[in-house]
Amino acid sequence: FLVEDTRSIIREAAKKSCFICYKMGASITCCHTGCDRTFHLPCAPDGQCVTQYFGAYRSFCREHSPQQTLQPRPSQDNTCIICLDTVEDNISYKTMGCPACQDARFHRQCIQALALHAGIAFRCPSCLNQEPFMTEMLTMGIRLSKSAPSWESDQEVRPSDQRHGRCDAAMCLCPGGREHVEKDGPWQLWLCSSCAAEGTHPHCFSLGNSTYSWECNTC
């Protein structure tokens, strides 16, 4: 049944056009009632779409994405607290803020990178608040990691010449098995774009031809 369900999802996605890149194979639909916009996951940042990586894993187009509501800043320092580059004056998809201290501002890309590296220690880099801050970031589409902080990891680093070589999808559909890899087509192996420690055959994870990257469930 799972194989047939996967094939059904692939067939339905093949009929839908991404409202961002206009190519077919869009498998994600905005969950707002009455909205039928569909898009590819890799296109989401360009279209300012939000996917919430918890609970029901809901996705929203840019028109219906959740918005942060913060008080005016106590300070006028328009600097990202993480990379120290300039941020926008106002809160937007690309510029976010801490709901606890109401003052910290950071780029979406910067706070996303911090979330993946910090793991269970993820918190506001300014006031160090964790609970309200983490809840807000999840709501706004920031992916969190359940692993220990990268700076505390004692795992042995994988040698650079040893590339991960098997499909880790929940159900591998490849006739040749999880370790069968081809140079092109549905049975090539895509590694997680964040950790490169897990991989999948595009066909096993319903990745269309218009998809250019993939991330594992851990990341």
UniProtKB/TrEMBL annotation:
Coiled coil: none annotated. It comes from the Eukaryota. GO terms for cellular component: nucleus. The keyword Nucleotidyltransferase does not apply. GO terms for molecular function: zinc ion binding. SUPFAM superfamilies: FYVE/PHD zinc finger (SSF57903). It holds the Pfam family PHD_G2E3. The keyword Zinc-finger applies. Keywords: Metal-binding, Zinc, Zinc-finger. Signal peptide: none annotated. PROSITE patterns: EPHD, ZF_RING_2. Residues 80-127 form the RING-type domain. Residues 1-65 form the PHD-type domain. PANTHER family: PHD FINGER PROTEIN, PHD FINGER PROTEIN 7. This is PHF7 protein.
